[in-house]
Request: fold
Amino acid sequence: MTMTEQGCSNFESDEARWAALMAAAQAGDEADYRLLLSEVSEVVNRYLRVRFGNHHFIEDCVQDILVAIHQARHTYDPRRRFRPWLFAIVRHKAIDTLRRQRSHQNTLDRHREEQLIQVQDTAPAQLEAGVVHGRLIDALSPPYREAITLTKIDGLSVAEAAAQLSISESTLKVRVHRAIGRLKRLVEADSV
Amino acid sequence: MSSREDLISALSSDLQSVRPVVNIDLMAAAWLVLSALYVVAATHWFGPIRPNAFSQLAAEPRFLVETLCGVAAITLTAFTAFRAAIPGALTSRFAIVALVLMGVWLACYGIGLVSPALEPSMLGKRAHCIWETFVYGLPPVLLAFVFTRRLYPLQPLQTAMAFGLAAGMIPALYMQIACMYVPAHLLQFHILPGLMVVFVGATIARFGRYPRSGD
Reply:
């Protein structure tokens, strides 16, 4: 078997396996779904890194795509091929992330400029106060800011916060998870 | 454990089974048939149709081609809209063909201003055809949103506008048979209100609870 034939064979076997795994996931099979998401996340990660480089937001994008796959899993028709369905989501989410990344980066740049001016007066102990009073939270993009404010500051439950934002609970959990990660990085950046 | 592994664990734990959507083309065909039947029934219910319209379809080849072109354009637009509500189901080639066909159909009426397909006549004039066309297009666009409420349009606004176009053009096309045939009248009182339904679709997508893939 030549390299090309081997490649085509792998391509087709992946296609058939993923289609079968997704059909099993639609029936509620957790193990198959976990395997599918693991394999797909690796493929998507490579796909994005080849196209966009090794940027820090790639991991966020991969996780966004996993959530989108989860939310859209009922729209996969087992009679159709899996890859067009998957990569339609991947391309859409990648563009979406890039767009958000640009606007988030602008916000972050503005915030850092302000921090540079204030840095001499800022004691490390005040950083936590900054989080609580919203100074660092303001640097988050609006979806993350809303998620963290409602759940961690206003004290709403996940279900209540998700209902208020008209999003699913899983999306809210991901946003809170990301917001915390970003706040950690902001605090570390401020500490330097 | 990395955060990605955490996420995969969270998503796959307590996994509920989901019912896969029905064949999207079947859904589009069902919507098209229901919408067309409703528009024909409503048009006949609220007023008589042009007496010689169906004999004109048989006797005037250009009028027949124009009408069939409209049927094909609306059908492809409807299939485009439904396919757009599912990731990866719509190819750009299919969408372009639908758009071009819609353009060709509408261009027929533009050409009709200079060289009409039928002898212009006031026969069959309906007093409120402009409002009829617009109002008859509303239930089909709402029905399309009901049909696709569980789906996952990657471009909700464009998808909703395509639904509006298909829904608005059904009564616009049937009004060419039901009402008087004068090209300027067709464009102003039938096609224009049909196109206004596109904005209704866009408004529903923007302010309604239409599924947004970005959420």
Chain A touches chain B at residues 25-30, 33-34, 37-38, 41, 59, 62-63, 66-68, 70-80, 84-89, 92, 96, 166-168, 170-171, 173-174, 177, 181 (CB under 8 Å). The two ends of chain A are 56 Å apart (CA to CA).
